[in-house]
Amino acid sequence: MKKVTIIIATHKKYQMPLDTCYLPLHVGAEGKKDKDGNPLNFGYVKDNTGDNISSKNPSFCELTGLYWAWKNLNSDYIGLVHYRRHFCYKRKDKDPFQNILKDEEVQKLTDKYEVLLPSKRHYWIETLYSHYEHTHFSSQLDETEKIIAEQCPEYLEDYKRVVHRTWGHMFNMMIMRRDLLNNYCEWLFNILFELEKRINAGKVADSVHLSAYQSRFYGRISEIIFNVWLEHQTHEGTIQHVKELKCITLGKIAWGRKISSFLKAKFFGRKYDGSF
């Protein structure tokens, strides 16, 4: 039987699936204290153990969890989901929690597929680039393109195709064979760490004095460029068998605010100011 480990990125105590493939991971654990001044402890593994970038969590979001998994796990397949957003193979129950991907389903799927991904998210009236431009700051994405052109120019045409699409695999969620995850993470973090250097040096416009929400743009950029990496690997034949899975969200979604913010960003230039 394959060893599959899917980290559940969380910053709070929450209901977690008990299947053995899941590993709840407290992301952004570095420096967090409880009301008594002790290290905050939810009873989960923390992302400030081993080789880690936990301190970058305010801007890298769940990517500190992905980095931790890459550097510290030795499973055959490694994945990432969120405490409120999970993969679902088949809906069998009215309770969303009961439909979360199970151990036996993961084993069967990874027998056939190298990569499991969330279903495409469609923006319909926006490309990935225009959506980022309207909700965040396009200079960050433009600088990412420059870095790709310098570090891995063979990906540049893939980048141009991807950002002009109206859909993508989002949320930084995936389950991948270990060697593919190694390839992806090395590629991704080389790009993001270079981007971070340039932003810290003041070389990227609109990237200083950001709100706490807007400061999380590294995680937003990775959502887009994951599709670039996937596009290239698929064309090269490195990845041949991919399965899209539905996502389920636990808890309520503020659909009214979500749709309103999307339209205000698109038509009135109002940047996003929070999650929904």
Derived from helix and strand composition plus strand pairing, the structural class reads alpha/beta
Structural domain count:
1
- The secondary-structure element order is EEEHHEEHEEHHHEEHHEH
Largest sheet: 8 strands, mixed
Q: What proportion of the residues is helical, as a percent range?
A: 40-55%
Adjacency order of strands in the biggest sheet: 3-2-1-4-9-6-10-5
How many beta-strand segments? Answer: 10
Please give the alpha-carbon distance between the first and last residues: 39 Å
The total of helices stands at 9
**Rg calculated over all Cα atoms:** 18 Å
Shape: globular
Poorly predicted parts: none
Describe this structure in words.
- The chain is an alpha/beta fold and 276 residues long.
- The protein has one domain (4-268).
- The chain is 40% helix and 16% strand.
- It has helices at residues 57-60, 63-72, 103-112, 128-135, 138-151, 156-163, 178-200, 217-236, 255-268, and strands at residues 4-10, 22-26, 45-46, 77-82, 85-88, 115-118, 121-122, 167-168, 174-177, 242-249.
- It has an eight-stranded mixed beta sheet with strand order 3-2-1-4-9-6-10-5, sandwiched between helices. A two-stranded antiparallel ribbon has the order 7-8.
- Helix 6 packs across helix 8 and helix 7 (178-200) packs across helix 8.
- The model has no long low-confidence stretch (mean pLDDT 93).
SSE layout:
Layout: E1 4-10, E2 22-26, E3 45-46, H1 57-60, H2 63-72, E4 77-82, E5 85-88, H3 103-112, E6 115-118, E7 121-122, H4 128-135, H5 138-151, H6 156-163, E8 167-168, E9 174-177, H7 178-200, H8 217-236, E10 242-249, H9 255-268
Parallel strand pairs: 1-2, 1-4, 2-3, 6-10
Antiparallel strand pairs: 4-9, 5-10, 6-9, 7-8
